[in-house]
Structures are given as C-alpha cells and as structure tokens.
Amino acid sequence: MPPGILLAAEEPTLSSANTGFMLICSALVMLMTPGLAFFYGGMVRVKSTLNMLMMSFISLGIVTILWVLYGFSVAFGTDKGGLIGWEGDFLGLSGLGLTELWPGYTIPVYVFAVFQLMFAVLTPALISGALADRVKFTAWALFVALWATLVYFPVAHWVWGAGGWAFELGVIDFAGGTAVHINAGAAALGVILVIGKRVGFKKDPMRPHSLPLVMLGAGLLWFGWFGFNAGSWLGNDDGVGAVMFVNTQVATAAAMLAWLAYEKIRHGAFTTLGAASGAVAGLVAITPSGGSCSPLGAIAIGAIAGVLCAMAVGLKYKFGYDDSLDVVGVHLVGGVVGSLLVGFFATGGVQNDAKGLFYGGDASQLGYQAAGVFGTLAYSLVVSAILAFVIDKTIGMRVSEDDEVAGVDTVEHAESAYDFSGAGGGTAPRTAAVPAPPATPAPEAPAKKVDA
Amino acid sequence: MKLITAVVKPHRLDEIKEALQAFGVHGLTVTEASGYGRQRGHTEVYRGAEYTVDLVPKIRIEVLVEDDDAEQLIDVVVKAARTGKIGDGKVWSIPVETAVRVRTGERGPDAL
C-alpha cells in the first residue's frame, strides 16, 4: 500500500481513471478465489472435490458479510495501540460518503473498501488446501469467521493500516506477502498440527484427480494476481503500479521455469503440477517485493522462490505433518522468501527509497522485513492453532474416519463431483410383453450363429 | 456353449472386432479393465512424491459361442490381439449352461 503522506498544498481530487482501474482490479482479485478453488479442487481425490471447491466459495459468502459489518473498521479504522483499528463510521460501511477521499488517495473510500474486501475473502480460502478431505464443513465455516475476525483483520491493520506496528516500523509488503500469504500459510500449519493427518497419509496414493483443473485454476490465479499486485498501489499516477505489473509477470515466469528445472533434475520429468505450483510460488514471492525491485531483481526473486518452494513441499513427508496441498510449502515459504528478499533486492528507486543489501543499503530493511515475517507468522500460527483446538473440543473439526474414507463430498454436501455411470434412468415403454419361454427347446439352428 | 473371455491391450480392440466380424460373430461385450501380469505399471511424480502405478489399463472382451466354434474363435482373437510384446494379455473359455435372449425369450444356441 502506498504511504498516506499528504503535502498541505495537494488536496486530492477524485480520479475517474484510477477509480475505474481499481474497480476492475477488485473484480480481478475476486476471480482469484474461484481460481484457487479449482487449483485446489483438481489436486484432491475425486471423493472430496466438491468440498475443496466449497471451502473456498464459502469464504466469498462469510467474509464479505463480516467485512461490511466490522472487518473494514478493524483493519482500516483509527489505530488503537498499533494492533487494531476501530472507526464507528466504517461499521456497515454506512458512514462513508459517496465520493469521500482519504488524504493522499484519488479513489473513493468505497472503492478501497471493496478492493480490500477481496483480499480478506481470499486469505482464509488459502488455508483450506492444507485441510483437504477431512474437515466438517460447519467447523470450517466457523473457523473462517473466527479466523478472519481474530487474525486477518488485525494483521491487515498491522501491515497496511496507518498506525499499525509493522507499517510504522517500515516493513515493505506491497500487496500481501505478509498479511495474506505468510498469514495463511502459518495458519494452515497451526491448524494441521492440531487436527492431524488424513487417513492413509504417506501410505495410500493421493494423486491429484484432475490436473487440467489445477492448470485452469493456476491460470485464473495468475490473471487475477495482476489486479491483486498492480492494484495495490491504488492508482496509476506515478508508474509504480505498472512496475509491479511487469514484475508480477517476470517473477512468475522465472519461478515456473526454476521449479520445472529443479524437478527435471531431481525427479526426471517436467510435470504440469510443477509448472502450476512454480507459477504460484513466484506470484506469492513477488507479492511483497515487486514494488521495490527491478525486473532483473524479479527474475532472481522468482527463481529463488521457485527452487526453495519445490524443495519445501517435500518437508511434510520428512516431518510427518499433512499439509495436504502444500499451503505451507508454497504460500508460507514463498511469502517468507519474497518478504526477506526485499532486504536484498530493494533498489530504492521504485515505491520508496529503502535500499536492499545488493543495492548499497545496510541491513536495516532486512531487519524490518524479518520483524514483519516473524510477528505475523508467530501470531497467526498460535491463534490459528488455538482456534482449531477450541472448535475441535466443542463441535469437532474432523468428520468420522468412516466418512473420511467414504468421501467428504457425499457426507457433507450430499453430492458427487462427477457422474461416470451410464447405468440407470430410461423410461422407454416396452414394445411387447415378455414372452413365456417355449415349452420345448427349439431345434438347433443349422446356420452358424454367434452372438453375445 | 462357451464363454470366451479375452483381457488384452486396449488399442487392439478395433483389430479384434474386425476379425470377429469376419468370422461371423455378431455381438460382443467390452469392459474397461485394469490389472497386471508380467507387464508392470509405471511411476508418476506429483510435487516430488513418487507413486508406483501397478495396474495397467486393459479391455475385457466377452463373446458367447457354440461349442464347435470355440477353439477356432480363440485363435482368431489371439491372432488379432498379438503384438509380440509383454502385456498382450490372456484369452480363455469356460462352459456356459444356458443363455436367454431377453427380447424374444429364446434359449440356448438360438439366443446367440
């Protein structure tokens, strides 16, 4: 987010170009949640496809409402002690003027509120990938509501709200490497440490049931991410958003190639899942850093993230935690890598004048980044684990083992993703009564007659 | 009557069908199947996790014939199915007590 600095002479005026651009960006970010649903949905087994899709879609419902009621107020209201915001006028988005502008911005507060709403929707949905196949849908819905309230809204305030501790410290998080990806990745880790592994983890094959869906989802994410990243500058008056747009494309390309190269060397094949995962790893890593690095820096950041995330997805087998669809391996690791690399690759010539170690700066920016990373990671991990624990002890987080084995789709949603059976149905009337069998066997037919 | 069952490579289906038609067989049933014999499966990799897929896709063809035609028909199927490589499959026959054509109620060889 751009700093809210206003010189006395510059009273902002509403820019219709920026407003239109930001409304389109908001729609692009909205598309990321269905994109994520397909990205995850293709990766699970057939029997839990719908549940995976629904875990993302339900966030579009729940978090949207909470954001209007009080989320925007907690995240972007007047600061209280650097930890949360609160502003009565923001409750229900009722006290906002139609063309009300914040100091230093040229888009109505309404537009900012809806853009940020899409981020709040996406972030809890990201967590769901770690919980595949085994969570009660009501427990998940409750978790989404509580997690948005106690974790996302405050952390968004820390990182982007005027007065938030990370914002004031000087942590650079252009579009959400910390508030979105580290936050969601750490939450995923906290929850799975509480709820445990899927039945058959490390024993049964758990192959993605539809890699084309995964590729489609990755494509939608990549497309929507331009709104997520370039839109985070909230306007286009100084070219910074355009640099972010370029870097988003460049880092994603580099990360996809890096993941594929690592995979080819290590496992002998260029996989489609590797291409999709590498692209997402690059998108995650450039999210905090793309407004402070050059395109060459973006290539380096993408490539580093691609390789490190490709290595990180294997850790779950080593340590025995069931991060089902690698939310930790891709989003937490990618977010940490991208956030820390700001301390190395910031050129000092894009979003602000902070310089990284590779551009003649000292280690102070790296220190700020580490503080933002650690603070968010620790808070989200602990609070998410506590939330999961409380829900588990009250209504229960997991479906029964039998239901999990049978498939969470039919149990929780009373539907199946695909109908492959050609049997059943058909009401064509009978053309004749069923004849009685002949009393005596008919004589052998002379001609050769073979049939089945 | 005999039931001839062939479990063979999926891409041989058209050849087998044509050979059976030339022999005078007017109908058959085909099922998609999977299994393994001496031919083993392959390895797949998903984000570094390697899975050995043992079962190889096959098709299972079933044909009912009169006893006298059985041996000859088996030869026809084997010839059409053979590629000479591991995994060509198996063909076998078993005796069938009776068969009924559902539409007419004809029984025995008449139902074929």
Question: Can you tell me about this structure?
Answer:
The complex is a heterodimer of chains A (452) and B (112). In chain A, helix 1 (16-41) runs parallel beside helix 3 (109-127) and helix 2 (49-76) packs across helix 3 (109-127). Chain A has 15 helices and 2 strands. Chain A has one domain (16-413): Ammonium transporter AmtB like domains (Ammonium transporter fold), CATH 1.10.3430.10. Chain A has 452 residues and is mostly helical. By secondary structure, chain B is an alpha+beta fold. Chain B has one domain: Alpha-Beta Plaits (2-Layer Sandwich), CATH 3.30.70. Chain B is built from 2 helices and 6 strands, in the order E-H-E-E-E-E-H-E. Chain B has helices at residues 13-23, 67-81, and strands at 2-8, 29-35, 42-46, 49-53, 56-65, 89-95. In chain B, the strands form 2 sheets. Chain B has a 4-stranded antiparallel beta sheet, covered by helices on one side. The chains are: A mainly alpha (452), B alpha+beta (112). The A-B interface holds A 205, 207-208, 263, 266-269, 271, 273-274, 277, 310, 313-314, 317, 326, 329, 432, 434-438, 441-442, 444-445, 448-452 and B 23-29, 44-51, 53, 62-66, 69, 73, 100, 103-112.
